[in-house]
């Protein structure tokens, strides 16, 4: 994004050593791991860009809050401090903590969905989709057309196609118990949703008498994009309050914008729905004042929610992602534009035009980047897509992407320079990079445990 500061707005008080291995060592380590970065030990990774989920650093105030945790089974002070933070930052009077974001989905969808229902979303995240389907309901992704164009520079590629939503609710509205919008749109590359779009979605929901829920894992990053690109007249906390005021409730993975390593929640306005969800939460998660977490986790979340809407933090956070994208773009490396909030995506088909899709170019690139720089990344391409159950053929992905997800407050600018240098070095000798083939292919979720060999 436009000229964001990349100077770290913090200094370091606790350090976690990381080890730089040699290229030769890494060749051996990745071979032992079956050329699958998921099977590496984290201690053999120098810079881990596998995910931004639960991998960030907590602040001194969060660690202080951990010590304040009240571990009472019921009615703990920590719960009430979380409730206050949710009310203050997000404006919801009711909150149910859960152990992760997917657990919040489990509880909310058990309360609200039944077999045969339809759930529209700008784009469902994997766990959200799986939980909708687990209830016997169907998902519909209604992302705006620009969201599917890797080259489109639209500032809000996470927007929902509101005409399509209106049509769906007019034609099949009886089957739709709720509408969801994911902010930022994770599966679409961390792209933001505009306040104007959210407002229009709300208007359509009102016209059809449907509740609106946000999948709010990265609500603060989304609010920062709105503040920068759409509503400079508002502060980030004001944007957050406006976004939330449009929704009936949220599910949230606290491992992203609550700046903690584990946790999630449901936040709601409606008392009756809160009571219904509380009953399921007791069954799946625990008593509704702890919900599968320790009291200390709730205190860390409460503090994280207050810190994440700080504009200095967000400018640096989004600035790091934009900085990495700028370095790569300058060197001609093909990336998905514009970069989203939490990651830079390399376009592997343009990066490695000589590697055909059935030799998994993005996967091959992830192996090469590990060998070159000790950097762990994740393929979002055909290995991840799996096989079509009907034909048994690879379900070829529309885009072969390699995701470089940036953990929050974890790496410095010199780490990002190392990442950029390593990617650029691989790009300069891209003609030498070969594809891979399976030596072991598990039947489901093959990317996690598959093994490969490099092609000669
Ligand atoms: C991470 C994430 C989830 C699931 O949360 P977990 O904490 O991993 O269970 C749901 N939706 C979105 C948009 C996410 O990014």
Topology at a glance:
Elements: H1 23-32, E1 47-48, H2 60-68, H3 77-89, E2 94-98, H4 101-112, E3 118-121, H5 126-134, E4 138-141, H6 162-172, E5 179-182, H7 195-207, E6 212-215, H8 219-229, H9 236-245, E7 249-253, E8 264-268, H10 271-284, H11 295-308, H12 311-330, E9 343-347, H13 348-351, H14 361-373, E10 375-376, E11 378-380, H15 382-385, E12 401-405, H16 413-428, E13 436-440, H17 446-449, E14 451-454
Parallel strand pairs: 1-10, 3-4, 5-6, 6-7
Antiparallel strand pairs: 2-8, 7-8, 9-12, 11-12, 13-14
Bound molecules: pyridoxal-5'-phosphate.
Write structural notes for this entry.
Strand 3, helix 5 and strand 4 form a beta-alpha-beta unit. With 456 residues, the chain is of the alpha/beta class. 41% of the residues lie in helices and 12% in strands. The strands form five sheets. Strands 2-8-7-6-5 form a five-stranded mixed beta sheet, sandwiched between helices. A three-stranded antiparallel beta sheet has the order 9-12-11. Helix 3 runs parallel beside helix 11 (295-308), helix 8 (219-229) crosses helix 9 (236-245) and helix 12 (311-330) packs parallel to helix 16. It has two domains: 23-52 and 310-454, Aspartate Aminotransferase, domain 1; 60-307, Aspartate Aminotransferase, domain 2.
């Amino acid at each position: 994004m436009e000229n964001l500061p990349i100077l770290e707005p913090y200094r370091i008080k606790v350090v976690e050593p990381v080890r730089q291995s040699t290229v030769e060592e890494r060749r051996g380590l990745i071979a032992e791991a079956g050329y699958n970065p998921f099977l590496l030990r984290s201690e053999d990774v120098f810079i881990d860009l596998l995910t931004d989920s639960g991998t960030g650093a907590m602040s001194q105030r969060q660690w202080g809050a951990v010590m304040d945790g009240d571990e009472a089974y019921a009615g703990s002070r920590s719960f009430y401090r979380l409730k206050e933070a949710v009310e203050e930052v997000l404006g919801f009077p009711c909150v149910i903590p859960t152990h992760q974001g997917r657990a919040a989905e489990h509880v909310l969808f058990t309360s609200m969905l039944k077999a045969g229902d339809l759930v529209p979303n700008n784009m469902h995240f994997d766990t959200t989709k799986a939980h909708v389907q687990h209830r016997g309901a169907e998902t519909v992704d209604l992302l705006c057309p620009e969201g599917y164009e890797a080259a489109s520079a639209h500032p809000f590629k996470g927007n929902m196609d509101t005409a399509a939503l209106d049509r769906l609710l007019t034609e099949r509205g009886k089957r739709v118990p709720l509408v969801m919008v994911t902010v930022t749109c994770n599966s679409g590359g961390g792209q933001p949703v505009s306040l104007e779009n959210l407002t229009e979605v709300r208007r359509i929901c009102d016209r059809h008498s449907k509740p609106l829920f946000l999948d709010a894992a990265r609500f603060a990053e989304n609010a920062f994009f709105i503040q920068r690109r759409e509503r400079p007249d508002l502060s980030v906390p004001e944007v957050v309050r406006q976004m939330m005021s449009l929704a009936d409730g949220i599910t949230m993975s606290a491992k992203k914008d609550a700046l903690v390593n584990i946790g999630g929640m449901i936040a709601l306005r409606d008392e009756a729905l809160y009571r219904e969800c509380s009953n399921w939460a007791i069954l799946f998660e625990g008593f509704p004042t702890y919900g599968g977490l320790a009291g200390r986790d709730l205190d860390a979340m409460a503090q994280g929610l207050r810190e994440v809407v700080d504009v200095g933090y967000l400018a640096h956070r989004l600035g790091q992602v934009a900085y990495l994208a700028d370095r790569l773009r300058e060197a001609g490396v093909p990336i998905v534009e514009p970069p989203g909030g939490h990651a830079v995506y390399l376009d592997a088909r343009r990066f490695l035009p000589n590697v055909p899709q059935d030799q998994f170019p993005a996967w091959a690139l992830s192996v090469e980047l590990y060998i070159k720089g000790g950097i762990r990344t994740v393929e979002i391409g055909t290995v991840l897509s799996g096989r079509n159950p009907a034909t048994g053929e690879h379900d070829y992905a529309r885009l072969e992407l390699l995701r470089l997800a940036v953990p929050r407050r974890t790496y410095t600018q010199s780490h990002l320079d190392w990442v950029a240098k390593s990617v650029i070095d691989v790009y300069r000798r891209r003609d030498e990079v070969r594809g891979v083939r399976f030596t072991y292919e598990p039947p489901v979720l093959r990317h996690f445990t598959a093994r490969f060999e490099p092609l000669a």
